[in-house]
Write a structure and sequence with these properties.
With about 325 residues, the protein is an alpha/beta fold. The chain has two domains: about 120 residues, NAD(P)-binding Rossmann-like Domain (Rossmann fold, 3-Layer(aba) Sandwich), CATH 3.40.50; about 160 residues, Dihydrodipicolinate Reductase, domain 2. About 40% of the residues lie in helices and about 25% in strands. The chain is built from twelve helices and 15 strands. The strands form two sheets. The protein has an eight-stranded mixed β-sheet with strand order 8-9-10-7-11-12-13-14, with helices on one face. Strands 3-2-1-4-5-6-15 form a seven-stranded mixed β-sheet, sandwiched between helices. The relative contact order is 0.15.
């Protein structure tokens, strides 16, 4: 009998998944490439890794799993997922953003359709306890009326990180969309959006852009605005306004609230953050939902293809 789940990758993200899978008592098979990452994975999680890469593993014609989790580097996300689809895996949790370059999404979508498979994007912030609680408050208040968000990145740190070209040149797609997806997931997808980008050539590691701003209206009628300046101080943040509250995510892992008629900003004390503190935030509930087939809160690969049009405009890709 084969393992229930294949975990593709043995790096930091894969190790975080292994901890959650162990906690959920879910049998899995880890498949990695390099010996060092395999050794580190085994030392940290207590689970063995089949090294040598996915191609070599599949050449032995292993029994199909119930599902697979793809947690490899951004440059290998699409290729790895396509290998799994071609082999016959029908249910895949694919690490965000799913591709290394925007144009790769089209081939991935086409293959997903051909194989009648389910490919879900692992935007784990959708499963933060803070986000879940905010959704409850928004529903009680009658919906979002407006919101704003910031996705400023720390260029002074990022420029020195040892990353692939795909990671650096597509940093907005690979990293900033974590917060953009969270904002639009929580408040509604954009129906209309005006985007402005500057700073082309200012950053060697991200040559297409460094300064971002825009505004629009969602499908539900909420107005929104955003900005980010990667050459200035800042941080990720989201503020959501309803008729009764201002919900503040700064940092995103915690929820603060401002009541109408008050200038006081307080933490929402009724939230149990224990899972987000014990595991990588959002990962436990995300993985549990995926394994149980509770997939309504995920972004699937078809929705990601549509979102990519918006992301291109926001980033100058």
């Amino acid at each position: 009998m084969g393992k229930r789940v294949w975990l593709i990758g043995a790096g930091l993200m894969a190790r975080d998944y292994a901890k959650v899978l162990n906690a959920l008592e879910t049998g899995f098979l880890a498949i990695g490439r390099g010996e060092k990452s395999a050794h580190d994975f085994e030392s940290e999680t207590g689970n063995k890794v089949i090294s040598g890469g996915l191609d070599q593993f599949l050449s032995a014609k292993p029994e199909l799993p119930e599902s697979a989790i793809v947690a490899v580097g951004i440059e290998a996300l699409s290729e790895t997922t396509q290998l799994l689809l071609k082999y016959g895996v029908k249910k895949i949790l694919l690490e965000k953003p799913g591709v290394g370059y925007p144009e790769e999404i089209n081939e991935l979508v086409q293959l997903t359709q051909e194989k009648d498979a389910q490919v879900l994007l692992a935007y784990n912030r959708r499963f933060y306890t803070s986000i879940i609680k905010a959704k409850e408050i928004i529903e009680q208040d009658g919906g979002v009326t407006s919101f704003n968000f910031e996705f400023t990145e720390w260029s002074h740190v990022i420029k020195d990180l040892k990353k692939t070209e795909a990671e650096h040149h597509n940093w907005f797609l690979g990293n900033s969309t974590h917060i953009v997806d969270s904002a639009f997931y929580l408040c509604g997808k954009p129906k209309e959006i005006s985007t402005y980008v500057s700073g082309e050539g200012n950053l060697n590691w991200h040559p297409k852009s460094s300064n971002f701003s825009g505004a629009g209206i969602t499908e539900t009628g909420a107005l929104f605005a955003y900005h980010a300046n990667w050459e200035a101080p800042g941080r990720w943040a989201i503020e959501v306004l309803t008729k009764k509250h201002r919900l503040i995510f700064k940092p995103i892992e915690k929820l603060q609230i401002q009541e109408i008629g008050s200038i006081a900003v307080n933490e929402v004390n009724s939230i149990d953050y224990s899972l987000d503190e014990q595991y990588k935030p959002g990962l436990y509930l995300q993985t549990k939902a995926f394994l149980e087939g509770d997939c309504g809160e995920f972004c699937n690969v078809f929705e990601q293809q549509k979102a990519m049009e918006c992301y291109r405009g926001m980033s100058n890709y």
